[in-house]
Write a structure and sequence with these properties.
mainly alpha
């Protein structure tokens, strides 16, 4: 098997790409208020969808809007402004991170934070990744306290 073929079938790599596309789709949903199924159809037509964990992408795209109030409330204490005042790209990244911290205990908290920071570096404003890192780190201290304490 070629290196490229192995890379495309790596579950961690597929999840990373799922988060990336989900962030873009959630940004679109946030800005347009569009139908999630229509947004998903648009993303299903992209070439890069072949390298994505489609089930994870679907879960993030549909479950995050379904529990957005819960996710925003979980982050509220760690934000320096209302969630709606946070940059839309950062908001989408923070929501993915909070969703994973709360609902995907199979994803280690360090992975959640790292993935959020990487998305911030790629898509956010110049130093937005620092803000994302600070918020996600504080949220993880509370939401994943048992996991963090066990790692000490």
């Amino acid at each position: 098997m070629s290196k490229a073929a192995r890379k495309s079938t790596n579950p961690a790599h597929a999840r990373k790409k799922s988060r990336r596309l989900a962030m873009q789709a959630l940004y679109q949903w946030s800005m347009s208020g569009g139908d999630l199924n229509e947004i998903e159809k648009q993303f299903q037509q992209k070439d890069e969808i072949q390298q994505v964990d489609r089930e994870y992408f679907h879960e993030l795209l549909h479950r995050i809007p379904a529990c957005v109030d819960e996710l925003d409330q979980a982050l509220d204490a760690y934000l320096d402004r209302e969630m709606e005042a946070v940059d839309p790209v950062e908001r989408a990244i923070l929501r993915i991170g909070s969703y994973e911290l709360i609902h995907r205990l199979d994803v280690p908290y360090r992975v959640v934070i790292n993935e959020a920071v990487q998305l911030g570096k790629t898509f956010g404003a110049a130093d937005s990744y620092r803000y994302i890192n600070g918020v996600m780190d504080k949220a993880a201290q509370q939401l994943r306290k048992i996991e963090i304490d066990a790692a000490k």
